[in-house]
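REVIEWER CHECKLIST
Item 1: Sequence provided? yes
Item 2: Single chain? yes
Item 3: Sequence as submitted:
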Amino acid sequence: MINFTVYKNGKLFTDDLNKQFIKINKSKILFVLHGLFGRGKNWQTFARQYSSDRDQFVITVDLRNHGGNKFKKEHSYLLMAKDIMQIINHLGISKVDLLGHSMGGKLAMVIALSYQNVVNKVIVADIAPVKYNEDSQNIIDILLSLDLHSIKNRNHADEMLYDHINEKFLRTFLLQNLELAEGKYRWSINLEAIKNSMRDLRSFPNFDHSSLIDNKILCIYGEKSNYVKEKYFNNFNNYFSNITFQKIEDAGHFLHVEKASEFYEMSLNFFKN
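Item 4: Structure as written out by the authors:
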């Protein structure tokens, strides 16, 4: 089972989960699904605040081949959806809300389309159910090219990465996946598996368009992002009959970081109404 963390009342929920199935089952649950190269910990501030404001459980996950999970050769949206369903079944949860960013946003849509009876509302953050021409292949190749044995410390790793990536935020985001174990640096993310699966990750699985699902879906997207454009709205409409769109001005792809307060308020208002 993939790693997951439970938050309640603004704190880590550390009770024995095996004894809490009934309690969790009767509560509203929000699953937060991170993007490519991310991990559940990226969303801990959001999860703490939301679990406090809404007095409900929030579960963040480390998706397949991310966050220190056991490496798997196969990596796809359908497999990641099964991973999430394994947690849902393990905890005895009957209904969930989903919030997913980027790769996690595509995953949230896949879960909604594959397991409609389990899903309530969904927020898709800055991604569309389309095939993108650009991918993260170059970033993966850069990370794989780093000589991990020569890294002295994290600052040194940042300097090495600066030769290829100028943006400080992106370097910091990527280097969260660099960990020191037994005196040696290694990647906690399965770069090879993700590289081999990039064709699938930049696409979207095929689903039957004959019957639209009527779950409430909100797509929040950044004005400056290239991942969600108005021409993609019809692609959403091919799957979802009850979808709305909200744009955050002056925000890019990492809108939940760049405009954290606006993103949080939009999310809170959507789920509570």
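Item 5: Key structural point noted by reviewer: The longest strand covers residues 119-125.
Item 6: Recommendation: ____
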